[in-house]
Structure formats: structure tokens, C-alpha cells
Automatic annotation (TrEMBL):
Homotetramer. (S)-2,3,4,5-tetrahydrodipicolinate binds at residues 144, 153-154. One of its GO terms (biological process) is lysine biosynthetic process via diaminopimelate. It comes from Sphingobium scionense. Residues 3-112 form the Dihydrodipicolinate reductase N-terminal domain. Catalyzes the conversion of 4-hydroxy-tetrahydrodipicolinate (HTPA) to tetrahydrodipicolinate. It is an enzyme of class 1 (oxidoreductase). This is 4-hydroxy-tetrahydrodipicolinate reductase. It catalyses: (S)-2,3,4,5-tetrahydrodipicolinate + NADP(+) + H2O = (2S,4S)-4-hydroxy-2,3,4,5-tetrahydrodipicolinate + NADPH + H(+); (S)-2,3,4,5-tetrahydrodipicolinate + NAD(+) + H2O = (2S,4S)-4-hydroxy-2,3,4,5-tetrahydrodipicolinate + NADH + H(+). Residues 116-252 form the Dihydrodipicolinate reductase C-terminal domain. Its EC number is 1.17.1.8. It is found in: Cytoplasm. The gene is dapB. The keyword NAD applies.
Length: 254
């Protein structure tokens, strides 16, 4: 039976993942948190020792904070344990660390573990590939009031899909946080807008707009269970993969 370890175990997602693992019949080896105290379930300890957890589990799931990523990756490399990373707010330096780790162990990184969002990304890629750059692409997301990063990891994932479809680099064409006299929209830009409020689990909309018509493709998460179940499915799949970097497409057969 696969044994799962959870980095960020006491958080909203950490607890949802522990529950989904138990429902799927998997063992939860334990978890880490910033403080490293308490229990995830009766007899399942939360510590602040990523190496001990990586040694105790068959596969790790990280839904914590970007600042914890380097130590979590080091622990997984030292223990030779695969890791699924769902933490968002990652910068270029974090992706470089993930690329390095993926030369030593299996690593799956994704801004969204749900089937629906990953299918949406495939649809967005297809739409962007089919339409010229006289179609403006805008990505709007809304999340709960506690979310600390923007744009969401999912919005960036969808932006990457749109850029791939269009054959461009997202970093060179993204427009974030318009305010004041911004000037007219740059042709070929991919725009992002982030809303925060209440308890929204995760809403994403990709708008493709041209003169006289627009297409809207979207996804609404009604709760965190879809992310937690997707993380369990992804981690179970990853435990059987060779060294390398993966996303959810292989897991979901997309
Ligand atoms: N990929 C996906 O499908 C999804 C990704 N996410 C992402 O997952 C992440 C977590 O989200 P959520 O659970 O809502 O956030 P929470 O703030 O509820 O949980 C994050 C947890 O990480 C803990 N933490 C902080 N520092 C460390 C550390 N050094 N080691 C281990 N744990 C640490 C925090 O502890 P403390 O509170 O004490 O600081 C907290 O318990 C976010 O980046 C979010 O965007 C969320 C949903 C789906
Ligand atoms: O912080 C969240 O809650 C979520 N984060 C992920 C993101 O940044 O896209 C995934 C999901 O939308 C929920």
C-alpha cells in the first residue's frame, strides 16, 4: 500500500489531502508544518523534519509555501523519494530547483491537480492555436480571501497553454495588473486579472475576444476535494515513474 507524506500538512489543502488519501485506502506516513507540532490524524504526527518524513514515505505531496520548496526538494533527493508539488507562487528560481531535482528523482509540478482544469488547458491551447493574434486573450481568476499569491498557479498554467498554442513565450507577452493610464492593449498580449473574496475555492475564465465576437472557456471548483483527489491520483502515478519532470497530463491521459 502506498504511503504518502504531506509537506504543509496543517493547511487547508494538507488536511483535505490527508482525508482523500485515507478515503483512497492509502497510508498517511505523516506531515510537516512550519511549527512542527500536533497530529494530522490520531497517531499521525506533524513535525518540522522534511528528511525524516521523506525517508518514511513512498511519495511526498507538497502544498506548503514557496519558501519551503528548497528544503523539501533536498529532503526528497536525500531520501530518493518522488515528490508532487502543488504549491503555487513559484518564481523562476523555484522552477530551476525543480528542474535540477528532476534529474535525480521523479517530480510532478502543477498549478492545478483537477481533471477539469487540465482539460480546460488543452482546450485553451487548441483555441489559441486555431485563432490568430487579432484575438485578444485575457485570463480572469477569483479565489478566497486567504490566498496570498497572484495570479494563481492555475491562471499561469492556462496562460502557458495559450502561449504554447500561439507559439510564443508567455514571459514575453504577459500583461499583469493594469492600473491608471496603461495605453492601449498590446497586440498578442495575454492579460491576467485576479479577484479575491469570500470562500471561493477557485474560478478561472479564459476570454478570447476579437472585433464583434468572443469565446469564454472556464472552470469553477466548488470545493478543495477535486484538488486533493487529483493530488492523490498524481502521487500514486508518480511513485511508479522513472526520474524526470512531469505534469498532470500523463496522469490524466490528456
Ligand atoms: N496545485 C493545486 O491543485 C492547488 C494548489 N494550491 C496551493 O497550495 C498551497 C497551499 O494552499 P492552502 O492549503 O490553501 O494554504 P494554507 O496556508 O492553508 O497551508 C499552507 C501550509 O503550509 C505551512 N507551511 C509554512 N511554512 C512551511 C514549511 N517551512 N514547511 C512545511 N509547511 C509549511 C503553513 O503553516 P503556517 O500556517 O503555520 O505558516 C500552512 O499550514 C498554496 O500555494 C495554494 O495556492 C491550493 C489548492 C490546489
Ligand atoms: O490557493 C488556492 O486555494 C488555490 N490555488 C491554486 C492556484 O493558485 O491556482 C489552485 C486552486 O485554484 C486553488
Amino acid at each position: 500500500m502506498t504511503s504518502i507524506g504531506i509537506f504543509g500538512a496543517a493547511g487547508r489543502m494538507g488536511r483535505a489531502i490527508a482525508q482523500a488519501a485515507t478515503e483512497a485506502g492509502l497510508t498517511v506516513a505523516g506531515g510537516t508544518d512550519r511549527d512542527g507540532s500536533g497530529e494530522l490524524a490520531p497517531g499521525v504526527a506533524i513535525t518540522n523534519d522534511p528528511l525524516a518524513l521523506a525517508q518514511a514515505a513512498d511519495v511526498l505531496i507538497d502544498f506548503s509555501v514557496p519558501a519551503a520548496l528548497a528544503a523539501n526538494l533536498d529532503a526528497c533527493i536525500a531520501a530518493n523519494t518522488p515528490i508532487l508539488i502543488g504549491t503555487t507562487g513559484l518564481e523562476g528560481e523555484h522552477h530551476a530547483l525543480i528542474d535540477q531535482a528532476a534529474t535525480r528523482i521523479p517530480v510532478l509540478q502543477t498549478g492545478n491537480t483537477s481533471l477539469g482544469v487540465n482539460l480546460l488547458a488543452a482546450l485553451v491551447e487548441k483555441a489559441a492555436a486555431s485563432l490568430g493574434d487579432d484575438w485578444d486573450i485575457e485570463i480572469v481568476e477569483m479565489h478566497h480571501r486567504h490566498k496570498v499569491d497572484a495570479p494563481s498557479g492555475t491562471a499561469l498554467l492556462l496562460g502557458e497553454a495559450a502561449a504554447k498554442g500561439r507559439g510564443i513565450a508567455l514571459a514575453e507577452h504577459s500583461e499583469r495588473g493594469r492600473d491608471g493610464i496603461t495605453g492601449a492593449r498590446a497586440k498578442g498580449a495575454i492579460g491576467f486579472a485576479a479577484l479575491r473574496g469570500g470562500s471561493v475555492a477557485g474560478d478561472h475564465q479564459v476570454i478570447l475576444a476579437t472585433e464583434g465576437e468572443r469565446i469564454e472557456l472556464g472552470h469553477r471548483a466548488e470545493n478543495r476535494t477535486i484538488f486533493a483527489r487529483g493530488a492523490i491520483k498524481g502521487a500514486s502515478w508518480l511513485a511508479g515513474q522513472p526520474v524526470g519532470r512531469y505534469d498532470m497530463k500523463g496522469v490524466l491521459g490528456l
